[in-house]
Amino acid sequence: MSVPAAPLDAPPGQPKKAATAAWIGSALEYYDFFIYGSAAALIFPEVFFDESDPATATLLSLATFGVAYAARPVGALFLGHFGDKVGRKKIMVFTLILMGFSTFLIGCLPTRDQVGTLAPVLLVICRVLQGISAAGEQASANSMSLEHAPPDKRGFFTSFTLSGTQGGQLLATLVFIPVAALPEDQLLSWGWRVPFWMSIAVAVVGYVIRRTLEETPTFTQQAATEGVVKMPLAVLLRDHWADVLRVVAAALVASVSTIFTVWALSYATSDSVGMDRTSMLWVGALANLVALGAIPLWATLSDRIGRRPVFLIGAAGSGVLMVAYLWAISTGSYPLVMVLGIVTFGVVYSAANGVWPSFYGEMFSTRVRLSGMAIGTQIGFAIAGFAVTFAAQIAGPDGDDWGAVALFTAALCVPPVIAALTARETHKIPTEHLGERAHQDSPNREPISA
């Protein structure tokens, strides 16, 4: 006898609570993640690497930023598997604690002057732990908010995860502004460590918020009726392999974020351009502030007209505008940099950034949603993370060939456009039926064991 399906309505208040937990948790976790990016561009070349060769030191420092992205696919395999077996909530709590711990350790690391080459090795280990944590964070938070959300507002509610990411990036930037303004000797001795030490508070606050959240109705029903799959990865690759590849390609749009946040900051403050460190941090801060408002607006629009058109606006528009933004930096005109930075990252990129949590998550069924989102996004994000390293290489020996970097960034926006054009529109499909077309499921089909 089949077990009757449990009702899929979320308990009163849970959709808002899930969205709030996703926002705050992502903000706190990505605060940790992005302070590393600022430090990698501004501080670590002098603290952890050989100062006698500044260009190589900068390249190596930016490469450590990409290391976390290389670790993400590994973390996605592990955390995605368990997220679809034990639930979204446990993974959300675990990733937050791991990120807080690894980030705090970075603030405690000895420098190259103190322990030699051991210093960058320890830095890379901590960065790998950050990457593993980030691999499960967004996928679990997105799955949690999507599965709790009302069917006609999934875009809006899932966008809170990415609004939280922007909030964390804004917080990281605001923390680094007074740090970057410290005298050079204080900045390089103890000042840079303070933002990393603050991650302990991050972990405690995030844990308190997330541990009270209920598991999602769709996952609870899946576990109570068909049961969770034994090997989510096997089911994912058998039934959803095309959508996994589509998400990998679409996730390359994150290259816009990494180039904007890390390489452009390093280039603008280099000797070839000479813009002020604090002023450039304010560009990022204001762009992220605008993004906090733009992301839910774009997501709400996607609930009305669909995910695909909104994502296409963000992906194609960002590819074009990043050329203009990097050109503005090359001119050294701060007003021009400020305006184009806000329009590019705060407004247009937010279209893709705000809609992808629902766009990707709706491609998969409940039984493999966390695995599908985690693996697909993290492979794409891994490539996007190393885009910073590639940019540093193609920028030439002096690091000032902004045109080559601009074209490289624009080219990375082409696969996301193709992925969106070939994707199905899902914004009107009921939550419990998402992913059915991909593997020919129907509401009454017998469960597949795996």
- Return the string of H and E elements: HHHHHHHHHHHHHHHHHHHHH
Would you tell me the overall average pLDDT? 85
Q: What's the story with the biggest beta sheet?
A: none
Shape: globular
How much is the radius of gyration in Å?
A: 21 Å
Low-confidence sequence ranges: 1-7, 438-450
Which range does the strand content fall in? under 5%
Counting DSSP E segments of at least 2 residues, the number of strands comes to 0
Q: How far is it from the N-terminal to the C-terminal residue, by CA?
A: 21 Å
Helix content: over 70%
Structure description:
This protein has helices at 14-42, 44-47, 54-86, 88-108, 112-115, 118-148, 154-180, 184-189, 194-197, 199-210, 217-224, 232-239, 241-250, 255-268, 277-305, 307-331, 334-361, 369-394, 402-412, 414-422, 436-439. By secondary structure, it is mostly helical. Helix 6 (118-148) runs antiparallel to helix 7 (154-180), helix 14 runs antiparallel to helix 15 and helix 18 (369-394) runs antiparallel to helix 19. The longest helix is centred in the N-terminal third of the chain and has 33 residues, at 54-86. It is globular, with a radius of gyration of 21 Å. The two termini are 21 Å apart. Residues 1-7 and 438-450 have low confidence and may be disordered. Keywords: Cell membrane, Membrane, Transmembrane, Transmembrane helix, Transport. Its main location: membrane.
